[in-house]
Amino acid sequence: MTYTCTVNTPLGKMTAAAVQDKLSGLWFIGQKHYPAVTSEWTENREYPVFETLRRRLDFYFSGQEGQAWEEEQAASTERNAKGIMAGISVPKMDLYLAPVGTDFQKAVWEILLQIPYGKVITYGEIAQRIALARGLTTMSAQAVGSAVGHNPISILIPCHRVIGGNGKLTGYAGGLDKKKALLRLEGRFLLKNKVLCYNNLSTIK
């Protein structure tokens, strides 16, 4: 059974989904790749996972996320190494993520989880990391882009921190306006549809 509820955020309403004690989905209502409602969905606003999610989103949108990343950098790295299927803890909150996808998609989402608050990475860089991990010489940035676009847990798996090779803001399932708002919240400077000085900042290691 999948429990669902509607969550209010400063950027609009979102649909959250949870299976057992893990968050399996978080989508802006009406976004691209919004899931089809099935008979397995049961609305339960009071489900404990959603109570934690609301606190987690309040924490993020209040601007406290940056400090949390600094305080928990070492612990976060250790948690991420365990992998999505083991349950990844979000800093400061007892919330675990369980996105459903292919092995390739999960490999991409693992990398997204390692992008620090306020930092960005390009699709090409993610492709290089995937290729290296798989012993390949190249990997399609377009394939990476598709996996990023199908991320089922917006904000918490931060696909909004992925940009084009020239710093350009490319598509975001929730809408480019929301991607801009999230990056500005995290302190990124934008000019029209580009991130300024992104290549002067460290990304994930």
Automatic annotation (TrEMBL):
Signal peptide: none annotated. One of its GO terms (molecular function) is methylated-DNA-[protein]-cysteine S-methyltransferase activity. It is found in: Cytoplasm. One of its GO terms (biological process) is DNA alkylation repair. It comes from the Bacteria. Its main location: cytoplasm. This enzyme catalyzes only one turnover and therefore is not strictly catalytic. According to one definition, an enzyme is a biocatalyst that acts repeatedly and over many reaction cycles. Involved in the cellular defense against the biological effects of O6-methylguanine (O6-MeG) and O4-methylthymine (O4-MeT) in DNA. Repairs the methylated nucleobase in DNA by stoichiometrically transferring the methyl group to a cysteine residue in the enzyme. This is a suicide reaction: the enzyme is irreversibly inactivated. Belongs to the MGMT family. This is Methylated-DNA--protein-cysteine methyltransferase. It comes from Dehalobacter restrictus.
